[in-house]
Design brief:
Number of strands: 0
Helix content: over 70%
Largest sheet: none
Strand content: under 5%
Order of helices and strands: HHHHHHHHHHHHH
Radius of gyration: 19 Å
Low-confidence stretches: none
Oligomer: single chain
Length: 259
Amino acid sequence: MKRRALTMSFMQVFSSPVFYLSIIGVTVLCFISVWQEINNGGGDVAYLFDIFIGLTMFKKLVVLFAAFPYVSSFCSDWKCQFIKPVVIRTGISKYVWSKFIICFVSGILTVFIGQILFIIILSFKFPLFPNEDLNEVLLLPFKSLSTGFFPPLYLLAQSFVFSMAAALWTVVGLTLSAFIPVHFAAIAAPVIASYLLEEVTTLLPNAFNLYLLTRSSDVIQQGPLVSFIYFCFIFIMLSVLAGWLFSYQVKRRVRNEVV
């Protein structure tokens, strides 16, 4: 039954035009963010991508697109009371955690696929990396990946970490929707939360600075593999924490403990 609940939720996302339009939206935003550089000659894909992930305004808009496919799904379930027959069939815990998994995965896929399309399209016009000494231009901790057996891993790793961060904020939006089941609040929450928490964590050591983590900065100085695992661990743990709060509030609502 748990697998069935997950399958139904995945089908709900992948059969929705919003999912595919959001992916296109991410790609378009990537291009808009670096359009002036492209017109000026561009340089290389790694440089253009680094500009994109450094621009706060466009990063927040990408988070907004990541939220569109699924983050307000609980609002719809609650307002239409679709939640009741689903909970009866699957159980409240399975319902909650299937929501969490689909929200997290759809957030990753929306942003990651959108960025990969951006990188692929750019690669037809610009080289992946500059002609200069890569050690002087590319950034740690993933710099060594650019000279490995598959150089695009440098860009793929950065893209995936950025996508994990966006997925975290979509889960935060899903969590807020359990407290305030309003579609607009659920969609806006990821953008607001990402801005506020990134600002707050600038007061913490670099290893916990969400702005630096989102940019794949070399905060632990342990090489590409350990750094990649660390980035994923932080974003997954924070997402699970948000998921636990979502579970707590949904169970209260189902038990009619919330007005």
